[in-house]
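Q: what does this look like with NAP bound?
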Amino acid sequence: MSLKTKYGITALVAGASEGIGAAFASCLAAEGFDLILIARRPEPLQKLADSLSDKYKVGIICMVCDLSDEGASEHVIASLDGKEIDILVYNAALSHIGSFIEHPAEGHNKAAHLNMITPMNLVHYFGGKMVEKGRGAIILMSSMAGLQGSGFLATYAATKAFNRVFAESLWYEWKDKGVDIIACCAGATVTPGYIRSKPGKVSLMAPAAQKPEDVVRECFSRLGRRPSFISGQANRFASFIMQRLLPRITAVKIMGDSTRKMYRL
Ligand SMILES: NC(=O)c1ccc[n+]([C@@H]2O[C@H](COP(=O)([O-])OP(=O)(O)OC[C@H]3O[C@@H](n4cnc5c(N)ncnc54)[C@H](OP(=O)(O)O)[C@@H]3O)[C@@H](O)[C@H]2O)c1
């Protein structure tokens, strides 16, 4: 069954202009969904919208909004003025790489808001509408960093753990209500944000970074079948060793050591 037949006609992608969010938007446009695309910078957002509407002849609304602002979810909901959303993809995230204490508390608050509070509020509103009508889908981006403590990514990792547990919990609550929700735990993925972070090579054994399109394809193939998943075979193998075979303290040390080495901290 196509995504459109199963879920409806309109998808909202929060954090859509580049990287994994843009790949979600492209995939959904190719499936024939009308789109609402959100990001802070208007130019890349409009450029993507123009190219997708030209190529796939779908309707696209661009919304410029900083989703880390306190009133962001209320703003998004009010701007949509009752418009039905059939698929919600929450992709935007903020990560501070480095010492927790040396980064201002304000920055950690912004990350907590962008990565947890805004998606929680949007899921509460749009998820509620989906449950009412008995169909819909929600995708929350999580990360392998959230599978255990990850030194030098403390707030980011903790917010990503939130997204996974949050999606899994709602998957259980909604499994008989026609609404699918999934947390996508990505590993390193070649996106502009990832490249800007200037990661170094950790070791020859580290899983290769995935392409955004591959993460998105895997996500749609698991949506409706699982509450969460780890993207990429090499990442699943690494996670099996870290989560199932090694003691948690070892997994936490490996993550912290890798991040320290990767970002020369
Ligand atoms: N890339 C990886 O290696 C990786 C690994 C694991 C998990 N993930 C997860 O995958 C997701 C996407 O990652 P990515 O690398 O594609 O991210 P990215 O390159 O940083 O792009 C994120 C998108 O979100 C938008 N955005 C960022 N902050 C925003 C804000 N405050 N308000 C509204 N929009 C905002 C950006 O556009 P503007 O800048 O114009 O706002 C951009 O379109 C994230 O949730 C991340 O945690 C990524």
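The chain has a mean pLDDT of 97. The longest strand covers residues 136-143.
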